[in-house]
Amino acid sequence: MTDEKQAMIEMRGVVKKFSNAAGEFTVLKGVDLTINRGEFVSIVGKSGSGKSTLLNMITGIDHPSGGQVIVGQKNIYDGVSESQRSKWRGENLGIVFQFFQLLPMLTLLENVMLPMDYVNKYDFDERPLRAMELLELVGLEEFANKLPVLVSTGQQQLAAIARAMACDPPLLIADEPTGNLDTRSSDTIIKLFQHFVALGKTIVMVTHDPSLTSRTDRNVIISDGEVIDETISRALPQLRHRHMLEFTKLAQRRVYQPRETILSRDQVVDHFFMIRSGEVEVVLQKPRKEEVVLSRLGADEFFGETELLRGGKSIANVRAAGSPVEALTIPRADFVRVMNESPITMEAVGKIVQQRLEARRVADPRRSWWKR
Q: How many CB atoms neighbour CB 43 within 10 A?
């Protein structure tokens, strides 16, 4: 269980429903999500998957239909009025929008000062100094007295980030912050975010850009209003989101104690295993009780695929190493079916099968692993 003292965001069974002329529809379907302090997390998903609604729950802009949203150990909906939530948001959140949302009649310096004025933070004379320091941090000190229209889109976004950090919030929410920027400007933004994370800030960023998700600490995928299990998305990144979500619903959690056997050689394998935590050893038992450890597998790696895809029984022993192992398992029939529906994933897994078979062939050349 996540230590609550370390959690910046906790969403517990969050549901969001909307009603219109066509009837009621559910956008978020019981979302459970924890984001710890100091993490840089990207949230991805197809259009309409619920990403923006998820952000609106975290920022207090919209109300959940059910469940709890706790930010910084504060339940931001239960017993909290709109004005209280607005003040809380100004003091604790920085929000960066895709289209900047700078006030066009104010200079960059004045835009950055606005949040301080709103929540009455810092002495009046200190605010312009604080705003200038932030503009210097993002490289815009020379443009402090210019209107937004007189600087580039990349510079406008940098100014928006400076504004979001005006009150030194512990949490920064960014909704497609690089969506309208070129590659160079996007890189500048991400490096700036990484700098804030190094200072202890927590950043949650919605993005469609896979080059950016690789630079965050975690990548949370939302599909059809539900959060995909991160072990599954990391173990099988080539899967379509709908298949990841299907595996999320099918997966069963199993825990194995240190040195406990998970699979025995010649045992019929009826599940695909993905490691959530801990480490397993793939062991070949040779004559005279001699052991050869063929490989060690850790978090987000998997095993059982060789036997499931090629048929037959386990071709080695698999056991928990020196600490408990938590694994997610998928039944054989479901795993094989989804692999057949996802040729790209089948190809990627197939390459791993070939590598592991070759390793076992080298370790014990007398056995015909290829025909098992």
A: 28
- What is the rounded CA–CA span in Å between residue 69 and residue 75? 6
Q: Hey, how many other C-beta atoms are within 10 angstroms of the C-beta on 358?
A: 12
**Position 11 in a domain:** yes
Name every residue whose Cβ is closer than 8 Å to that of residue 267 and which is 6 or more positions away in sequence. Answer: 313, 314
Averaged pLDDT, 310-325: 86
With 80 as the cut, is the pLDDT of residue 117 above it? Answer: yes
Which spans in 226-317 are helix H? Answer: 230-235, 241-250, 305-310
Continuous segment of H or E residues that includes residue 223: strand 218-223
Among positive and negative, which fits the CA dihedral 220, 222, 225, 228?
negative
Q: How many domains does the chain have?
A: 2
Specify the amino acid at residue 39: E
pLDDT tens-digit map of 236-287: 988 999 999 999 999 999 999 999 999 998 889 999 999 999 999 988 877 6
> What is the side-by-side order of every strand in the sheet holding 325-331?
252-256, 325-331, 271-277, 302-303
pTM: 0.85
Is 249 in the same domain as 207? no
